[in-house]
Amino acid sequence: MDAAFCKGTKLGVLYGLSQLILQFTFGVLFYFGTLIMRDDPAVSQLNIFYAIMAIAWAGWYAGNNFYFMPDVLAGKKSAQNLFMTLDDEDEDQKQIRLGSKMLTKAIEGNIEVKDICFKYHLTDDPILDGISLKIRKGAKIALVGPSGCGKSTLFSLLQRFYDY
């Protein structure tokens, strides 16, 4: 309970400071606006109001950009991990580099499937309907899509867990 109270107090103080800065900024803008209107009769109250609102909206939108920074940084880190995985050597490349023989026979050639149609026994709706796929030797691929679109089913078919 003590840690929650301290965190709540810190957040409350920070929120109060943010509101103080906001109100202080508006006060300064209105003060300088009155000075400009005093010194230049061509400037109207409406022009000052437009300028203050433009500054306020610009600041608000700029501040909202910082709200998304953790998501942007997480996306950057995810992209770095993806590219590291794609650039990393696979088991075949590692075995060749080390000069050792693989215990299992490697796939020699391309993988190609044409017009795969598949549905589970208890459903009438096809999971895969006319899927064709060609994978070149040594290529790294990724199948992406929403949940339930058939990615796992396609891999299971390629590994002969299901017969089609």
Structure notes:
- The chain folds into two domains: about 80 residues; about 50 residues, no CATH class.
- The protein has five helices and two strands.
- About 0% of the residues are buried.
- Strands 1-2 form a two-stranded antiparallel sheet.
- By secondary structure, it is mainly alpha-helical.
- The protein is about 60% helix and about 10% strand.
Structural class: mainly alpha
Which spans have pLDDT < 50 for at least 5 consecutive residues? Answer: none
Q: Mean pLDDT across all residues, rounded?
A: 84
If helices are DSSP runs of H or I spanning 4 or more residues, what is the number of helices?
A: 5
Identify the notable features of this structure and list them briefly.
164 residues, mainly alpha, 2 domains, two-stranded antiparallel ribbon, elongated
Summarize the structure.
With 164 residues, the protein is mainly alpha-helical.
How is this fold's topology laid out?
Layout: H1 2-39, H2 45-67, H3 69-87, H4 91-98, E1 111-118, E2 128-135, H5 151-158
Antiparallel strand pairs: 1-2
Helix pairs in contact: 1-2
